[in-house]
Amino acid sequence: MSMRQGESEADVVPKSKRPSDSAFKQQRLPAWQPVLTARTVLPTFFVIGVLFVPIGVVLLHLSNTANELIIDYTRCTSSGGITCADYLQENPGKQCNCAINFTLTSDFNGDVYMYYGLTNYYQNHRRYVKSRDDLQLLGQLSQTPSTDCAPFAYHPVTMEPIAPCGAIANSLFNDTLKLAQGGVDIKLLNTGIAWPSDKRVKFRNPEGNLTLALKGFAKPIFWQHELYDLDKENAENNGFQNEDLIVWMRTAALPSFRKLYRRLDQTNNNYAKGLKAGEYTLNVEYRYPVVSFDGTKRMIISTTSVLGGKNPFLGIAYIVVGAICITLGLGLLLIHMRCSRSSNMEMINVNPHTQYS
């Protein structure tokens, strides 16, 4: 140990790594540890079971009040007799049209929503989740996008920066789904489908004219339309504030997921209360390839309940946990009673005579 001038070796106090003599550091604080006995464990199991089972039944009932119809259109057939999945494999980047007739067996009352669902699609992959430029999505355009966007940062031919860049934006779902009844299209709304907080905070358009602001930037390679021309009917729904884009950019946690696509326009008197039971047609403009990675595509029509969309998982989980707790409680109770009886019998059978010297 080095010494300063004027100090003797005796004056230097060596540093100690020993903790200070406090109740906290020396672990002398008072502690409580539960003693697990039959009187404490068995009531806990029964209370949890008695509470969880009825809660699960209520949740399952509320979930079942929501109506839902799922149509898998992965291999829908075009008018030419070929499946659209096969057509896209032979003609990448093209469009295939198909129609699927279906029947609603009951009325879908209340607010009606249309979702698209994908399976075997890993949006939660680490590199995929990171592949975006958040500053760009806030309307702060730069000629040098974030390095996280590579290899979808620059157009491979023109070398212009891509807006929006990254793998998430490049793989934007671009099928067009339409509902019809009796040959007449049912109006569906493409606004009000994104989280208000996302649209207000995370996604903004650059100031000024959107077309001029995006001059010098290329659209993502997989896109058919420019960023400023995603919605030809509503100019406010273009650019980074396009709600289809915002919904897609919120990545899913699981490989099988659904995302909100459209809302039923209930200003029409025929559909003011929802969709009535009857014959309908799903018209699909098929552009999104999924067969190459063994994925599937679904269209979901659903109403909502007090808990949101139809999802029986939470109710089933409560019922299963409650049933397991009751079963374990009964099993442990029988074991406890049997062991207690055996102990009592052993005490009775003990020899009462005592030898004295």
Automatic annotation (TrEMBL):
Intracellular or extracellular location(s): Membrane
Keyword annotations from UniProtKB, A to Z: Membrane, Transmembrane, Transmembrane helix
Keyword Membrane appears in the UniProt entry: yes
Membrane topology: Multi-pass membrane protein
A Pfam entry, by short name: CDC50
Domain of life: Eukaryota
One Gene Ontology CC term in the entry: plasma membrane
Position of the signal peptide: none
Entry similarity comment: Belongs to the CDC50/LEM3 family.
This protein's name: Cell cycle control protein 50A isoform X1
Biological source species: Drosophila pseudoobscura pseudoobscura (Fruit fly)
Lineage: Eukaryota, Metazoa, Ecdysozoa, Arthropoda, Hexapoda
Gene: Cdc50
